[in-house]
Specification:
- This protein is α/β, with parallel strands linked by helices.
- About 35% of the residues lie in helices and about 25% in strands.
- The strands form two sheets. An eight-stranded mixed β-sheet has the order 8-9-10-7-11-12-13-14, with helices on one face. It has a six-stranded parallel β-sheet with strand order 3-2-1-4-5-6, sandwiched between helices.
- A hairpin with a 3-residue loop joins strand 11 and strand 12.
- The longest helix is centred in the C-terminal third of the chain and has 18 residues, at about 300-320.
- The chain starts with a strand and ends in a 7-residue tail after the last helix.
Length: about 325
């Protein structure tokens, strides 16, 4: 690739560190600027990754002419405003999931991308995982027949976290659903589409944050059983069963390195070792899209993000998952 993609990152927490490590593995990409409200944090990040520019203001990064595309790694509640500001400054944006807290925010973000003719994508990194891509291909080819059942979950023990932190604080859109429940929902949507009927139940923590959600998605010929929770860990396997076979995505399925196909009384295991932690593949997709001067990805489009947030909105409304700022 002749053109180098010059990246900036705002929000310098754990996921930003992982992203920066993987960006260093991708040809054609370079991290040129980072920003944090903490001058000290920005300075430490700059030293660790040998970054040219470090700012104590997100706006200063948006104004930096060295940067083409910005990775938004702030808490959920800040995704919309900072993404819009970045795009208004002519920057392309890769925004962590969920792209917005609700459909209204996602619509605003997409409208801004179109207005400024800049690229915008939700950073649902699992969509670009080689195993997930292959599983979709196998299913789309009809290798396991008609899907009748899908199961996926994402759970870990999180009740020992700071009640004021982003995971358990409703003021920060805390809870399991938006943080990790989005993954099982993404898989069901990717393979089965928008459900005909949604049934869900949630439990809540003393802070008011939702900490367990079980979901049944009904389709014409299939059921998807999904779960997210912060009260205990789970195996984090995913199973897709069809009329002619079954696929088991190896744990942890959202960052998997392989799957097993059960068909005709035979078992076939396929592996796809990841490059880095796996953020490399969404970074490569951004580079491809920018090189082709696209404002969205065909693999995870603006419509896909709208569909997914619509499903999340429906579950939240059904279960009374509301945030103080809405």
């Amino acid at each position: 690739m002749g053109q180098r993609m010059r990246w900036g990152i705002i929000g310098l927490g754990n996921i930003a560190h992982k992203f920066a490590e993987d960006l260093a593995l991708v040809k054609g990409g370079e991290l040129l600027a980072v920003a944090s409200r903490s001058r000290q944090k920005a300075g430490l990040f700059k030293e660790e990754f040998n970054v040219k520019n470090a700012f104590d203001s997100y706006k200063k990064l948006f104004e930096c002419e060295d940067v083409d595309v910005i990775y938004i790694a702030t808490p959920h509640t800040e995704h919309c405003n900072w993404s819009i500001m970045a795009m208004e400054h002519g920057k392309h944006v890769l925004c962590e999931k969920p792209m917005g807290i609700n459909t209204s925010q996602v619509e605003q973000m997409i409208k801004t991308a179109h207005k400024n003719q800049v690229f915008l994508m939700e950073a649902l990194w699992s969509r670009f995982n080689p195993t997930i891509k292959k599983v979709k291909e196998v299913i789309d080819n009809g290798d396991i027949g008609t899907i009748g059942y899908l199961h996926a979950d994402f759970a870990f023990y999180g009740l020992d976290k700071d009640p004021e932190g982003r995971l358990l604080n409703p003021k920060l859109a805390g809870g399991s659903l938006l943080d990790i429940g989005i993954y099982p929902l993404f898989l069901a949507y990717l393979l089965l589409g928008i459900p005909d009927t949604i049934t869900a139940a949630s439990k809540f923590y003393k802070t008011g944050a939702e900490i367990q959600t079980s979901i049944l998605l009904e389709y014409q010929k299939a059921h998807a059983l999904l779960y997210s929770g912060l009260t205990s860990a789970s195996d984090m396997k995913a199973t897709i069963s069809g009329s002619e076979g079954t696929i088991s995505i190896h744990p942890r399925w959202h960052e998997t390195e392989g799957y097993t196909l059960f068909k005709d009384d035979e078992e076939k295991r396929t592996t796809f070792p990841k490059l880095g932690k796996g953020y490399t593949y969404e970074i490569e997709e951004v580079h491809k899209c920018l090189t082709a001067k696209k404002i969205e990805s065909k693999l995870w489009s603006h419509t896909n993000s709208l569909d997914l947030i619509g499903i999340l909105d429906a579950i939240r409304e059904q279960n009374g998952i509301h945030f103080p700022f809405e």
